[in-house]
Specification:
Blueprint: H1 23-36, E1 59-60, H2 70-75, H3 86-102, E2 111-116, H4 119-129, E3 136-141, H5 144-155, E4 159-164, H6 173-182, E5 187-191, E6 193-194, E7 199-200, H7 204-213, E8 218-222, H8 234-237, E9 241-245, E10 256-261, H9 263-270, H10 283-294, H11 306-320, H12 324-344, E11 361-365, H13 372-381, E12 384-385, E13 387-388, E14 398-402, H14 406-409, H15 415-429
Parallel strand pairs: 1-12, 3-4, 3-5, 5-8, 8-9
Antiparallel strand pairs: 2-10, 6-7, 9-10, 11-14, 13-14
Helix pairs in contact: 3-10, 3-11, 4-5, 6-7
Bound molecules: pyridoxal-5'-phosphate.
EC number: 2.6.1.44
Keywords: Aminotransferase, Pyridoxal phosphate, Transferase
GO molecular function, one term: alanine-glyoxylate transaminase activity
């Protein structure tokens, strides 16, 4: 059953000052401000007492970074502390343990990592540690980010075979099975949600297929745009690695590479014949540090960001307060609303089949005669920021709407309504009328 949280529900908004009356006041104020002075800075504006502690600003509804909860942001103003002092070591250790829950894993031999960097560092972790030069990698690509993962693997000398889905779709299980039966692959990578297209890949049957046809192949997931908004049952599905980042559905500012690897992946690393092909991204350097932190022992390889770790700890504490299934369900409900509104407007979603559609973002084809430079500034004056397209085959033809984290879950925020209203009126101002 969908849950209807109360305004003070800590899983949704964990701060007494948090967005509790952000609602229409904030929206109209932002919209007024932006339309009267679209280019002036919002800096220095006093925040009305009933609003979030954040200055008024347009709702950032790109597919990451996303809007932040006040409590997460406030955690970053923690006083300075030593990265090897007991207070911070305890927080870091607890945060690593929280990741086990987030990934639904109880295997003590699986290894979480939190390393300063962005989502891309996750690709480097995989390429530098799990594949040796000349070894084969099968990359399933559903857009720009799948192609990027392939590029990263090639940079480290992997022999990459890429299977591309059609624009707006994913490679079929049959294609994957044929590829796996023709050649031995050390790893298979899949982008769970490609942020360039909003295409969702299915992981459970995919992993079962890999295990049946090529059981030694490691299954690695790019979960940058899926962790904390799409179901990921790491142990149950038999995944070997998920790499993600702090700034999307986890709802923490950018700057952390977050990853989780199975015992089998760690063993594959331990059995390498050659040393890892990176210094900063080496499991050899980081795994002992992560183990020590989780055991609440001080340890050092490279300085972490205590403030970001505090923010991540707060974000994960909020997420884990309620069952994950509720969180995924709520994202799915918001997604259904958005996709229906898009359809009602007479527009198409880039991900063609409903089962291939991500639940925390929507890539929307623009009507003919409406361009990205026409529509995005109009949305911005209405207090909403969307992103343009980045898939090379269709980049100028579509826009992207991120509906994840607090914007989708906090019942006191009206971000989704605001965005849909802005889209309707913005398109109409561009001269669009549904046929
Ligand atoms: C699916 C996916 N993978 C990888 C990345 C790269 O992450 P970052 O930009 O944090 O380096 C992104 C960024 O948006 C992404 O959406």
């Amino acid at each position: 059953m969908p849950r209807h949280p109360s305004p003070n529900d800590p899983s949704i908004t964990n701060s007494p000052s948090s967005s509790s009356s952000v609602g229409s006041n904030r929206i109209s104020q932002v919209a007024r401000h932006l339309s009267s002075s679209a280019t002036s800075s919002l800096k220095g504006q006093s925040t009305p007492p009933t609003m979030s502690s954040q200055p008024p600003h347009p709702a950032l509804l790109i597919p990451g970074p996303i809007e932040f909860d006040d409590a997460v942001l406030q955690s970053m103003s923690h006083y300075s502390e030593s990265h090897v002092g007991p207070g911070f070591v305890a927080t870091f250790g607890e945060t690593l343990t929280q990741l086990r829950q987030l990934f639904q894993s109880t295997d003590p031999a699986a290894q979480p990592f939190i390393i300063s960097g962005s989502g891309t560092l996750g690709w480097d972790l995989v390429a530098a540690n799990l594949v040796e030069a000349g070894e084969s990698a099968l990359v399933l690509s559903t857009g720009y980010f799948g192609d990027g993962f392939a590029d990263c693997l090639r940079t480290y000398g992997a022999d990459v075979t890429k299977i591309d889905g059609p624009v707006g779709g994913r490679p079929s299980l049959e294609e994957v099975e044929v590829a796996l039966s023709k050649k031995k692959y050390k790893i298979l990578t899949v982008t769970h949600v490609d942020t360039s297209t909003g295409v969702l890949s299915e992981l459970k049957n995919l992993t079962a297929t890999v295990k049946r046809v090529s059981p030694e192949t490691l299954v690695i997931v790019d979960g940058v745009c899926s962790v904390a908004c799409e179901e990921i049952a790491f142990d149950a599905w038999g995944l070997d690695g998920v790499v993600t980042a702090s700034q999307k559905a986890i709802g923490c500012p950018a700057g952390l590479s977050i990853s989780f690897f199975s015992a089998k992946a760690i063993e594959a690393f331990n059995n390498r014949k050659t040393p890892p092909a990176s210094y900063f991204a080496s499991f050899k350097n980081w795994a002992p540090i992560m183990k020590n932190y989780e055991a609440k022992k001080p340890s050092y390889f490279a300085t972490p960001s205590p403030q970001l770790i505090h923010a991540l700890n707060t974000a994960l504490s909020q997420i884990l307060t309620r069952p994950l299934a509720e969180r995924f369900q709520k994202h799915a409900e918001v997604s259904d609303r958005v996709k229906k509104a898009v359809k009602d407007l007479g527009l198409e979603v880039v991900a063609t089949k409903p089962e291939d559609q991500a639940h925390a973002m929507t890539a929307i084809y623009l009507p003919e005669n409406v361009t990205i430079p026409d529509i995005l500034p109009k949305l911005s004056t209405k207090g909403v920021i969307f992103a343009g397209g980045i898939h090379k085959a269709i980049a100028t033809k579509y826009i992207r709407f991120g509906h994840m984290g607090v914007s989708a879950l906090d019942p006191n925020r009206k971000d989704i309504d605001l965005a849909l209203d802005a889209l309707r009126s913005g398109l109409s101002e561009c001269g669009y009328q549904k046929a």
